[in-house]
Amino acid sequence: MKKILTCPVCQSTNIIKKFDVKDYFLTQENFSIWQCKSCGLLFTNPIPKGQNLGKYYESPDYLSHDTSSSGVIGKLYQFLRKINIARKYKIITNLKNSGNILDIGCGTGELLNYFQNQNWSCLGIEPNEPARKFAKAHYNLKVEEEQSLETIPSQSFDIISMWHVLEHVPDVNERIIQVKRILKNNGHLIIALPNPISRDSNYYKTYWAGLDVPRHLYHFSPQAFENLANRHNLEIIHTLPLKMDAYYVSLLSERYMKNTMPVFRALLNGTKSNLSAKKTGNYSSLIYVLNKK
Length: 293
Ligand SMILES: [Zn+2]
What we know:
Distance between the termini: 38 Å
Number of strands: 11
CATH architecture: 3-Layer(aba) Sandwich
CATH class: Alpha Beta
Bound molecules: zinc ion
Radius of gyration: 18 Å
Number of helices: 9
CATH superfamily: Vaccinia Virus protein VP39
Structural class: alpha/beta
Number of domains: 1
Order of helices and strands: EEEHHEHEHEEHEHEHEHHE
């Protein structure tokens, strides 16, 4: 394990431990969430060292890459994914109605396939090899490993998207610098993240599935994310909800708590979260649309 001594975003040494949390999803190991007093970022500490990070993704249930539909959660996930894809497509085509898109962490490629079918030029980046192979074989997509980011020419994409990806990336500043380089000057960067100050997070506390330690290395509140954007001269032009995530995250959290009637409770708490966020803006997950300044 690697103990983190300075804030991963602003490098401040003014950091404090907030609470302990378990990897309920896979290993049942304990981690802690710390906060930077300078920029507000919450981050997982300690984190697995680079070469050991992979084992925390080694689950047949890792849903980002799950294409089977066994069980209630798998079925619900597929249903939500279809709705989410249509919504993501609409958000992006409201910004630009054609062009090229780079989706970092494209998983098995369902979103890119949707764009490809609408005559967008598509490139995916995906570290998981089986997911990469699936996307190539089933959708005839161009999908490369993470290292390929370095060889993509500067200012070459209209849209770069990272849907629930940035919270997994070991060097967050380096990644933002990289995508900003690749983005056209009039392009748009889309970053979706779980929101640790949502109602469902406040309700489930350490059981909140949006924490997902140690796979999630950072937990960006809207303010902490804005600080990151400012630091890199990026302007947030829209902040939009991913309402379906409230239900999905609630269902996982209910399972971690081993509650009875998890589906019913998740529907209730997901709805409560979305209703509360109508007033506060703090949805379970938020989509940030950014432009270069
Ligand atoms: Zn900081």
